[in-house]
Amino acid sequence: MTTQTSSASEKPVDMIIFGGGGDLSARKLLPALYMAHLHCNLPAETRIIAIGRKDWSRDDFLAFMDQQSKPFVDKKALDPEAWDKFLALFDYVRINIDSADDFRRLAETSRPNALRVFYLATAPDLFTTICDNLTNAGLVDEHSRVVLEKPLGHDLASAQAINASVGAHFKEQQIYRIDHYLGKETVQNLMVLRFGNAIFGPLWQAPYIKSVQITVAETVGVGSRAGFYDQTGALRDMVQNHLLQLLCIVAMEPPVSLDPDAVRDEKLKVLRSLRPMSVADIARDTVRGQYAAGAIGGEPVKGYLEEANVPAESRAETFVALRAHINNWRWANVPFFLRTGKRLQKRQSEIVIDFADLPFSIIPSGPRNYGNRLIIQLQPEESIQLQMLAKEPGSGMHMLPVNLNLDLQQAFTERRAEAYERLLIDVIRGRLTHFMRRDELEAAWAWVEPILNGWKELNDRPRSYTSGTFGPAASSALMARENMAWAEEA
Length: 490
Ligand code: BG6
What we know:
Layout: E1 13-18, H1 23-38, E2 47-52, H2 58-69, H3 80-87, E3 90-94, H4 100-109, E4 115-120, H5 127-136, E5 145-148, H6 156-167, E6 175-177, H7 185-195, E7 209-217, H8 226-251, H9 260-273, H10 279-285, E8 286-292, E9 294-296, E10 299-301, E11 319-324, E12 336-341, E13 348-357, E14 371-379, E15 383-391, E16 399-407, H11 408-411, H12 419-429, H13 438-458, E17 463-466, H14 473-480
Parallel strand pairs: 1-2, 1-4, 2-3, 4-5, 5-6, 7-12, 8-17
Antiparallel strand pairs: 7-13, 8-11, 9-10, 11-12, 13-14, 14-15, 15-16
Bound molecules: 6-O-phosphono-beta-D-glucopyranose.
């Protein structure tokens, strides 16, 4: 069992962010830490040490925060006095990661009695050197924690190599592998929906469930990230982590508790039960797409190949749809349709549970072969809808589909912490449940890697789709083949 190191949480915290002057830090981590500070969720004596390559003074770094990070803080939460108090928590240390001397300077800056949280928001090929140098400078002890930002590898071997090199310095219960989807309120609520409500229990399996759809649709394009994205593609960027984690939460057996390992053991079983795909399966059950020019919300947008720094012949996929199967008793023969893409019609992440058709209808008028549908909207809407049949008012018995609709934003009006804020607080408090374990990460890669290889072997280009649609027509065909349809087409 993984134990929570609660005694360590009384120590003052030094949060040490490698890549402190980078994009992720500016847009996500620093605003999240500000919100945690504003709501008194950081331990009293917290200090934040930003690490970067630039030869900046502390004041230069604070100016960077004002310019690059403050704009990402929710305007309503921006209080000048609180922001100044927040800035007072910071130090900046310039580090050349190959220099042992620079790490010694870090050791002089960090308090000897502090619980050190190292956040590695850098390219993963720097992780080994950083960890080696941290150990050599005496900065790692049994209370230290390390947070690893994705991408955690580009295939199974590289993920194993990262795990091995970080594992040489930190025990597994000191390692927090971030998948920010696990920090989202609505994703955590999925566990409550499934395991806090008895009514779904008996129905949550074959043959009562006919299929499951998981969609994470984005309207944004590749933006300024082409250098990274073109080497990565949607399968690695989104499916290997976020979508498979969602699939795990939908499909896992009830864990014995919410202890980190109890939950992660069950997720691991799901990942290990994913049916491996042969090249023939890949040709039939996966669709790769790449966005072409089109319009989003009435505004014209460029195609992927016209974006800055994208190679002319790029085959990077910006869209994936696929049909997965879980080889176990609960899910035998229930297809899981996964879909994600950039430059799609609208930003929408949702899970759709299609229940089995009515076995027989005694009511002659109304839809035949009707199956109830549970739609769980994760973002931007936060709602749970159950589609069912009701009698249309009037004479005669005529049935029409209607929705039972739980709007979670209306039901709970409290502030929602952003995913990064929640996860950073979890790290500080030593709560590992919403982070990926080593074997989970590797099992996800073990399933995804053959798809990447299969695509190489098939050697075809991703299908072009117009920006502002829901992807290539082949994605609809993937479901239509089985008389099914994506939620927006049903
Ligand atoms: C990141 C991906 O992990 O998730 C990005 O690298 C993607 O490409 C982002 O845009 C989506 O996150 P969210 O929270 O906006 O749904």
